[in-house]
């Protein structure tokens, strides 16, 4: 197949492209350096060839408290990106199936995180703007399918983790930040201070599992929104304890700063639809995925864990 991927050099994009190449597809990789998706005519150079699939991964956001300080920019930039991609899809690549990323923060925190609730209620205030741009992206898919018959698939991931996370100075998702802090505590004796009381819970999906799931669902499911999660969540303290055991650091030395931003207290996606679509799905066990991620940190020690 001929496949175009936006956000191709990001954390997920790199892994997904490797999976698609393994399957011998012909790829066109877009990133912010070779195609500025905020510009209305940026995609016109890609009117040919006719693509079979488009994976739209590009988004303007970061982890941590980034969304608190950039709500206006997030709205404008992500709306530009998504509108330009959808417009190009409808006008120049209507034969292609578009697979895009939703976000778990689009769900209202007081409702079950099941697909039927994706557009219901209000997202958490601190992530409201980014969440609403992802809801608008999904609304665009629904509208273009209804009027023009375009095929889509919207995947809503839990937090992804694994080797190869971007190292360009951006804020890290919690699991990478945990690993970094604990290893630095081990190497340099730095205090390990985690945000919150450690009892907020999170769910993780190994990035290679997600890439495999995305390609499988793209082959078999049309015009659906599907949660991609592990089906279980654990407190931050549990993740920290596993990491401490792996790197031989004293868990009891960790400090918890309850004054810092922690986002939602719980976030575990309902995965009944995923299990129905892929009944034989086997995910990488948490301990195995964490070990591979920690090993990658050690391999990239000079970049990720430089001495001060």
TrEMBL record:
<feature type="domain" description="NAD-dependent epimerase/dehydratase">
    <location>
        <begin position="3"/>
        <end position="229"/>
    </location>
</feature>
<protein>
    <submittedName>
        <fullName>NAD-dependent epimerase/dehydratase family protein</fullName>
    </submittedName>
</protein>
<dbReference type="InterPro" id="IPR001509">
    <property type="entry name" value="Epimerase_deHydtase"/>
</dbReference>
<dbReference type="GO" id="GO:0050577">
    <property type="term" value="F:GDP-L-fucose synthase activity"/>
</dbReference>
<dbReference type="InterPro" id="IPR036291">
    <property type="entry name" value="NAD(P)-bd_dom_sf"/>
</dbReference>
<dbReference type="Pfam" id="PF01370">
    <property type="entry name" value="Epimerase"/>
</dbReference>
């Amino acid at each position: 197949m001929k496949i175009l991927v936006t956000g191709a050099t990001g954390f997920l994009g790199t892994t997904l492209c490797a999976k698609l190449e393994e399957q011998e597809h012909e790829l066109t990789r877009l990133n912010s350096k070779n195609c500025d998706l905020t510009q209305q005519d940026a995609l016109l150079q890609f009117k040919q060839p006719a693509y079979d699939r488009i994976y739209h991964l590009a988004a303007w956001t970061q982890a941590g408290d980034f969304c608190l300080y950039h709500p206006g920019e997030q709205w404008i930039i992500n709306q530009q990106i998504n509108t330009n991609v959808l417009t190009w899809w409808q006008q120049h690549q209507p034969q292609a199936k578009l697979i895009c990323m939703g976000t778990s923060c689009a769900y209202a925190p007081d409702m079950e995180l099941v697909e039927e609730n994706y557009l219901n209620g209000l997202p958490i205030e601190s992530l409201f703007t980014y969440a609403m741009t992802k809801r608008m992206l999904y609304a665009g898919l629904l509208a273009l399918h209804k009027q023009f018959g375009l095929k889509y698939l919207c995947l809503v991931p839990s937090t992804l983790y694994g080797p190869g996370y971007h190292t360009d100075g951006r804020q890290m998702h919690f699991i990478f930040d945990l690993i970094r802090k604990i290893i630095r505590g081990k190497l340099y004796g730095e205090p390990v201070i985690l945000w919150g009381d450690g009892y907020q819970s999170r769910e993780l999906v190994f990035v290679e599992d997600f890439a495999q799931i995305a390609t499988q669902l793209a082959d078999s499911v049309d015009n659906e929104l599907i949660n991609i999660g592990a089906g279980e969540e654990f407190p931050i303290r549990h993740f920290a304890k596993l990491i401490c055991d792996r790197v031989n650091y004293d868990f009891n030395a960790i400090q918890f700063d309850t004054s810092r931003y922690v986002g939602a207290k719980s976030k575990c996606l309902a995965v009944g639809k995923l299990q129905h679509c892929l009944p034989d799905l086997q995910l990488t066990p948490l301990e195995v995925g964490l070990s591979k991620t920690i090993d990658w940190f050690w391999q990239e020690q000079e970049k990720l864990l430089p001495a001060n």
